[in-house]
Write a structure and sequence with these properties.
The chain is mainly β. About 0% of the residues lie in helices and about 45% in strands. It has 1 helix and 49 strands. The longest helix has 4 residues.
Length: about 675
C-alpha cells in the first residue's frame, strides 16, 4: 500500500498516511512559525474540507462539555502498524495504524516528542488544557481517508485519557515503539489554529496498543536497502506470520503474510481463493489448495513464502457440478514431500495422498490411505494424519472398513508402492453405537518411531492414551503413567525434541476439572502437574451441575520452540470462555493468564479458537480469537509471554462476518 512507504526528501518526512506533516519544508503552516524551526506543524495539508475559518467557529480545549455523542471504540484495531523516528526538530518517534484495510480509513497516530534526559516508561495524562504545541506525547485521529491516506474528512486530538510509552527508539534506520493508552477521548480539532472545533464530533477509545518496529527501507524493486543495509529475512532478526481467512472480502478466503518486526500485513497474490495451506519448517516454501485454474476446484500449488514462484503440483477434476478440493495439507518435516487430504472430484470420497514438493515432468500423486470396505461409501472417511519425524511414514486414522469404527493405519510414503498397515484393528476397537469409537483426535510420532494416540474402544469406560510400536510385540498398549479411568485425557502434544508429552486431564479426586500435566513421552516416569490444581468443575453461579472446566478438551497445548514453556487454552475462570495461558514446562512459578477474551458474563461465545503458535525465538505468541468483539475472529499477537492479561496487538482484522481461520509462525 502506498500510504505505508517511507520517503525521505531533505529534511521533509511525510507522515505515512499523508494526513499530518512533521517538520516539513513545504507542508501546511504553523501558527507559531515555519517548518524546521522546532515548532510542531500538524496541519491537514490533504484535507478535503476547510477547518481553518477561525473566529466564532472555534472553541478552546476547555469547552469539552460542548462535545456530545462521542463515537465509542472498545479496542482500537491497530491494523497496518508502522513507525519511524524523525530527527528533524522537534525530534519525535511517530507510530500509526488504521482501523481496517480498505477505504475509507481511520488513522490513529502517536507522536512521542523527545527532550533531553527523558526516561521510559513515559506516562502521560491527557487534559483539556493540552494543545499540539504543548503536548509531550500527542495522539491524533484522522477519518475518511482514502487508500493512500489522502482526502481525509476530519481530524481529532486527544483531550482526555492516559498513555504510557514503554519504548521509543531514536534511530532512523532501525528501532521499536511500544505504547498503551486507555480511555482516550479525541475531539475534532483545527490544527492550524490549534483549538477544538466548536460543536465538533469526538471519539472515545477505551484501549489502544502499539508494538511495532522498523528496519532499513528496501528499494521499490525489492533489491538492496537504499541505505546499503541488509534486507535478508533469514538473518535471524525477522520472522513471518502466515494466516488464512476472509480478511479482505467476506466469504473469499485468501492467504496473508506479515514480516515481523514492523511489516505490513498483506494478502499474497496467489491468483485464487485458498482452501488450506502449510509452510515448511524453515518458512521458505508454502503449499496451498487454490482455485486459480477453475473457480471452486482447489488444486495443489507450491510457492515461495512471499507468494512468488507459484507452481501447480496436482490438478484435481470435475464430476458434473461437483469439483475436487484439497482440505488439509502437511509438509514432511524435511520439506521434500507433501501429504494432503483431497476429494478428487467432489463426490465426497476423501483420501490421503502424497506428492514430491519439487514436482516435475511425470510426477503424480500417490494414494496413501487404505481402500474402503465399501468402495463408494462416503460414510467411510479419514480423520487425521501425521508425518513421522524422519519424513518416511504417515499415520492415518479413519473408519475405512466399518462406519464409526476409527482405526489407525501406517504407511511408508517413500515406497514405490505404498501399502497401509493396520495398527489398530476393527476387532480391537469393538462394536460401535451411533457415534465414532476407536482412535480420536491427533496422532503423534515419538523420536523412537512409536505412535501416541488418544482412543476410546467399546470396552473402555472413557478416553485413554495409547502407544503403538510398529516393530514391537504386543505393540498396542496403554501409555504408562497416563491418566487412569475414570480420569480422562483431553488434548496432548509433544515437546519439540519429542521426549516429553503435555496433556490436559482431570483426576479421580476432581473429575471434569482439567489441569495440565507433563511427563516423558515413553511414560517412563509419573506425570507432573504443572498448573495450579485449583480448577473446579462447579460453575461459578453456585449451581450444582457438573461441567468440564479448565484446560481445553479440543485445543492442543503448544510447546515453545526451546521446549521450556507451554501455551494452552483453558476455561480456568469458569465463565465458558477460552483464555490463553502460559506455564513453565517444569511447573515452576505456576501458570499465567496472558490474555483474557473479555466480554460480559453472559457472553460465553468469546474464545481463543485454535492452537496458539509461538514465535521462533520463544518470546511471543500469536493466536486467533474474538477478543475485540463476539464472533469476530482476528489475528492477535502477544509481544511477550511474561506479562499477565495483556492487551493484544491486532495483527489482522476482518470485515463484517469475516474470520481468520489458521496461522503459522515461521523463521
Amino acid at each position: 500500500m502506498g500510504i505505508w512507504k517511507r520517503e525521505l526528501v531533505g529534511v521533509a518526512f511525510a507522515v505515512l498516511v499523508g494526513v499530518s506533516m512533521v517538520g516539513c519544508a513545504d507542508g501546511g503552516s504553523s501558527s507559531d512559525g515555519g517548518a524546521g524551526s522546532g515548532n510542531r506543524d500538524l496541519s491537514m495539508s490533504t484535507r478535503d474540507d476547510d477547518m481553518t475559518t477561525g473566529g466564532d467557529d472555534m472553541t478552546t480545549g476547555a469547552d469539552l462539555a460542548a462535545q456530545s455523542g462521542c463515537t465509542k471504540i472498545a479496542t482500537w484495531p491497530g491494523l497496518q502498524q508502522q513507525a519511524f523516528y524523525d530527527s528533524v526538530a522537534p525530534a519525535s518517534t511517530i507510530a500509526q495504524s488504521t482501523d481496517k484495510l480498505t477505504a475509507p480509513l481511520r488513522v490513529l497516530t502517536i507522536f512521542d516528542y523527545h527532550s533531553m534526559g527523558e526516561t521510559y516508561p513515559k506516562a502521560i495524562n491527557y487534559s483539556s488544557a493540552d494543545t499540539v504545541q504543548s503536548c509531550e506525547v500527542c495522539t491524533t485521529l484522522d477519518e475518511g481517508c482514502n487508500a493512500d491516506g489522502l482526502g481525509c474528512t476530519a481530524s481529532y486530538f486527544a483531550q482526555a485519557g492516559s498513555i504510557t510509552v514503554s519504548k521509543s527508539s531514536t534511530d532512523e534506520n532501525m528501532g521499536h515503539f511500544t505504547a498503551t493508552a486507555k480511555n482516550v477521548m479525541l475531539v475534532e480539532w483545527d490544527f492550524t489554529n490549534d483549538v477544538a472545533v466548536a460543536g465538533g464530533k469526538c471519539f472515545e477509545i477505551a484501549s489502544i496498543s502499539y508494538d511495532v518496529g522498523w528496519v532499513p527501507p528496501v528499494d521499490d524493486d525489492g533489491g538492496a536497502p537504499v541505505d546499503g543495509g541488509t534486507d535478508d529475512m533469514s538473518a535471524g532478526t525477522t520472522s513471518s506470520l502466515l494466516f488464512q481467512g476472509d480478511f479482505v472480502t467476506n466469504n473469499t478466503t485468501v492467504l496473508g503474510r506479515v514480516t515481523l518486526p514492523g511489516g505490513t500485513p498483506a494478502a499474497l497474490g496467489l491468483g485464487g481463493e485458498v482452501k488450506a495451506f502449510d509452510a515448511t519448517v524453515d518458512g521458505k516454501k508454502i503449499a496451498v489448495a487454490l482455485d486459480a485454474n477453475t473457480t471452486g476446484r482447489y488444486d495443489l500449488y507450491v510457492a515461495n513464502a512471499d507468494g512468488t514462484g507459484v507452481k501447480a503440483l496436482d490438478a484435481l477434476s470435475v464430476n458434473g457440478t461437483n469439483k475436487g478440493a484439497i482440505t488439509e495439507i502437511q509438509f514432511s518435516p524435511d520439506g521434500t514431500l507433501i501429504a494432503y487430504r483431497a476429494d478428487l472430484d467432489g463426490t465426497g470420497l476423501r483420501d490421503i495422498y502424497v506428492i514430491p514438493t519439487a514436482g516435475g515432468v511425470g510426477v503424480t500423486r500417490k494414494k496413501l490411505s487404505p481402500d474402503r470396505g465399501v468402495a463408494a461409501s462416503t460414510l467411510l472417511q479419514p480423520s487425521k494424519f501425521a508425518w513421522s519425524r524422519d519424513s518416511k511414514y504417515v499415520a492415518i486414522s479413519g473408519d475405512y472398513n466399518t462406519d464409526h469404527v476409527v482405526q489407525l493405519f501406517l504407511v511408508d510414503a517413500t515406497a514405490a508402492t505404498s501399502t497401509p498397515v493396520i495398527a489398530v484393528t476393527a476387532a480391537q476397537v469393538g462394536t460401535p453405537g451411533t457415534a465414532d469409537i476407536g482412535v480420536t483426535g491427533q496422532v503423534l510420532w515419538t523420536p523412537a518411531g512409536k505412535v501416541i494416540l488418544k482412543s476410546k474402544f467399546a470396552t473402555d469406560a472413557g478416553f485413554v492414551l495409547r502407544t503403538f510400536n510398529p516393530t514391537g510385540v504386543g505393540s498396542l498398549a496403554l501409555l504408562p503413567n497416563g491418566p487412569v479411568l475414570p480420569a480422562q485425557p483431553a488434548t496432548f502434544s509433544l515437546s519439540p525434541d519429542g521426549t516429553k508429552i503435555a496433556f490436559g486431564a482431570d483426576s479421580v479426586a476432581a473429575l471434569n476439572a482439567y489441569e495440565l500435566y507433563v511427563m516423558p513421552s515413553d511414560g517412563s516416569a509419573a506425570a507432573m502437574r504443572v498448573t495450579s490444581g485449583t480448577t473446579s468443575a462447579v460453575p461459578p453461579d453456585g449451581g450444582t451441575a457438573v461441567v468440564s472446566q479448565g484446560v481445553s478438551f479440543t485445543i492442543a497445548p503448544s510447546w515453545s520452540p526451546d521446549g521450556t514453556k507451554i501455551a494452552y487454552v483453558a476455561d480456568a475462570l469458569l465463565d465458558g470462555k477460552n483464555d490463553a495461558f502460559v506455564v513453565s514446562a517444569s511447573g515452576v512459578g505456576g501458570e499465567k493468564r496472558v490474555l483474557t477474551v473479555g466480554g460480559v458474563a453472559t457472553d460465553a461465545a468469546r474464545d481463543v479458537n485454535v492452537p496458539i503458535v509461538w514465535s521462533p525465538d520463544s518470546t511471543q505468541l500469536a493466536l486467533i480469537g474474538d477478543q475485540p468483539a463476539d464472533d469476530v475472529f482476528v489475528l492477535l499477537r502477544l509481544p511477550n509471554v511474561t506479562t499477565a492479561d495483556q492487551t493484544p496487538i491486532i495483527v489482522q482484522g476482518v470485515p463484517l462476518n469475516g474470520d481468520i481461520t489458521d496461522v503459522r509462525w515461521t523463521p
